[in-house]
Amino acid sequence: MRPAPTCRSFAPASASADPLLLTLKLIITPLLVAGVSLAARRFGPTVGGLMLGLPWMTGPVLFFLALERGDAFLIETARGALLAVPPIAAFAILYGRLASVLRWYWCLPTAAISFAASGLAMSTLDISHRVAAVLGAISLLTGYALVPRPTKLTGARSLPWWDIPVRMLATALLVAGIAATNDYLGPTLSGIVSSYPVILTVIATFTHHRWGVDAVRAMLRGVLLSLLSFVGFFWTVSIVVPHHGLVASYVAATLAGLMISGSLIFGIRHYSKWITPPTVQ
Q1: Cα separation, 83 vs 9, whole angstroms
Q2: Rg, C-alpha atoms of the chain
Q3: For residue range 243-273, what is the model confidence (pLDDT) as tens digits?
Q4: 127 by DSSP, 3-state: which?
Q5: Rounded to whole angstroms, how far apart are CA atoms 236 and 250?
Q6: DSSP 94-127
Q7: 227 near 88, Cβ under 8 Å?
């Protein structure tokens, strides 16, 4: 049995310090937005939301960083990922609550402010991985209850050919803008900004604008449920890596995340009447 490494704090790497990391984000994140957008158009916003919560980018990026920086780094970054979940839930809750009365360009900054405020509060907490995971799960389930259930899912509007390329461009610009702030912010603020839900921002605003209030609420509820697999993934990493190492922790975490996501998709497909995909003209 391997001794558990300890690491209670670290300063997030800046964009200039990790050009490879920034390059990966600029390439992978827009591709993920395109994939989720296509899935939402094919299977509906709920399935799109369920896909969105998986650690498609965070997991692989942290794996390669851990190869270079060690298990202690991965343990603390897993804790940071878990601490970022309640602020993301706050973002989704406020956006979903305001969507019926405000347009997307008012919902977005208000939700972003709620993310920043709750992120700042979470960054002051010195809590264990277990407590962070429990808080994350509670915030997600609370968010799912607070985001209003869609009353009607109407068909999507006819989408122009440039819709997904524009989403990808908006994502890349947002990632670049966040990376540019890292050299000017302290470690705490940099950590909060770096965990900002870029993909959720782009998908939510485009869904709201194109498909309407009910579609964005269905997507947000799907995201909140899917993030349970995100919590399960990083909680598993945090408890396995100290004793069995990086590769074993990722194998176990991937299995845990897939089991949670598969169960959610199966349950919604069989028990939710909101899974009917919108018709794309």
Answers
A1: 13
A2: 18
A3: 999 999 999 998 998 888 778 767 766 665 5
A4: coil
A5: 8
A6: HHHHHTTTS-HHHHHHHHHHHHHHHHHHHHT---
A7: yes
